[in-house]
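User: Show me a protein chain along with its predicted structure.
Assistant: Here is one chain, sequence first, then structure tokens.
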Amino acid sequence: MIFEQKDGDIMNLESPIGVFDSGVGGLTVLNELISRLPFENFIYIGDTKNSPYGEKDNDTIASYVSNIVKYFENKGVKQVVIACNTATVNSSHLINETNLDIIGVVQPTALKAINTTITKRVLILATSATIRNGIYQKLLSEQKINAFAVACPKFVPLIEKNMLNTPESFAVVKEVCEPYKDLKIDTVVMGCTHYGLLANEIRQVMGNVNIITSGEATYYVVKDRLKKRNLLNNSQKHGEIKLLTTGSVEVFKKSIGWFKNRIDALEHVSLE
């Protein structure tokens, strides 16, 4: 799920970084990247027309991923960040489809959880597709960590409708997490980039646990790869932030009231 760019391609320092998710959840990763890499230009795609990915079959998800990466390739991005766990675990085919440098969120997020837990008991909250893939369970069990993996199909619709900190969100999170609150779990992995937005609800049920989200963990990999390839933008000028959605711009705008970074453009895009 992490592919280095193949030899022979020359990139411009000011070329944008492409970031994508099935919807608005990947903006949590973009938030972190903008904060820590303020001089980079970013293009973000929220594939809201096809959201949620987590309840679809693997071949369908892989086709969505291919279409988005092809779009980024045509836009000349210097790196792609798959800010979606479900898309990450359905991206291995890209190694035969593109020369782009691609970073997924799963491995950095799992590594952070491994380095954080003390009790060696970790709750993984993710989409049905990510849980079905089993990648988080595999990575954690290899380090002798007891992983409890739970599919949460009700989470993304709540977040896409901006229903955070509502009676509905607290009820849904309680239903999912309460069976695990007395199992000495000290770390909860947000195995979907949307889920970090429910951290308040999760802590209310699980108590004082470590919440592992993808943004910070992924940033370190992104910076390291850009630096290794001599592609860190050193212009000292704040980069352009462009958001694209495959669905309704108005609906997208209403669902990202929590996103506090500057937005230079918010537009519809067709990938078909």
